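3.2 Worked example (two chains)
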Amino acid sequence: MPVTRAAEAETHEMHGTRFTSYIRPGMGSAELCVWQTQVPAGLKGMPHKVLREEAFVIIAGVVTLTIDGQPEELRAGDAALAPAGSTINMENNGTETATLVVTVPVGFQGELLDGTVINPPWAS
């Protein structure tokens, strides 16, 4: 049974955000990727398009998640779904780091507004 111990989870940083990978193809998953995202206070985020669905569950803190131009403030216990092909951005206007659990299907990619395609290492 594939198990990721917290002390062994891979951590990546991109655009000021920390991603801790727990479930991904590199660990044997055929269908799902799961990671924890830590969004520091004051982070304005990097708008990008998600090419597959992306689900968010807020564990701690507050973020504003904008999906296709519609911002929503999310607090601990809230969840949101970004549909495939939507443009998203996440901001933390609070005073503490926000923590989220995120899940996507295997093969997930993002695309920056300049057309650069991102294959996030925490989901591969």
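3.2.1 Second chain
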Amino acid sequence: MSLTIHDAETLITAARHAADAAGVTVSVTVLDAGGHLLAFRRDDRAVLISGETSTRKAYTALQLNAPTADLVDLVKPDGPFHSLPTALDRPLLFIAGGVPVHRGGRLVGAIGVGGGAPEQDHAFATTAREAISR
């Protein structure tokens, strides 16, 4: 089982609907299990950097198989992964808004949302993930 382009479009649409309902403009990135871009969408009025942050959040959630919201404290100065963001030459971003996507108990991809407050981005991404698990 893999994440399809149809799944990716469903994720993007659901995240954008959740963001629209909250009055927030966002960028949404969907990656497959290999970290390859499946879909990307940036609202016309979203800040430009939201495209980069949404992609990095998705990548981080995928690589660590965990929501980025759960990882924030791990990279603080006293956290066990404090040096991880600088130790690797990878586009990791430890800000809420990235969530892994599983199917049949297997990691099949990730979604990242950027543009709102971190808690909002996390909620939009989680709402989107639920849209394909129905």
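3.3 Remarks
The chain has a mean pLDDT of 94.
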